[in-house]
Design goal:
single chain, about 90 residues, mainly beta, three-stranded mixed β-sheet, 5 strands, signal
């Protein structure tokens, strides 16, 4: 699957922690051949209905700098993550 010029891939990992909305603003840029790691606590108080509890803003955002042949995203959590890709 070829991903065209994506302006932004918004990665929101939402875990219900019973804490106020957390907007960590962890923003990173992904370039071809590179890998990156985002770590932190995420989630929020807004119940999305079918995707758990989320913050008002993304907790992690990955900007894609160029065309990529593929993207592999792994999420390690003890909760139930929500992943949003725009």
């Amino acid at each position: 699957m070829k991903l065209g010029y994506l302006a932004v891939v918004a990665l929101t990992v939402a875990i219900h922690l019973g804490t106020p909305d957390l907007a960590l603003a962890d923003r990173q840029t992904l370039t071809p051949g590179a890998s990156l790691t985002a770590a932190g606590t995420s989630g929020g108080q807004s119940n999305s209905g079918d995707c758990g509890f989320v913050a008002a803003a993304p907790n992690h955002t990955i900007d894609v700098a160029e065309d990529l042949a593929y993207v592999l995203i792994r999420v390690q959590t003890s909760g139930s993550p929500t992943l949003l890709i725009e």
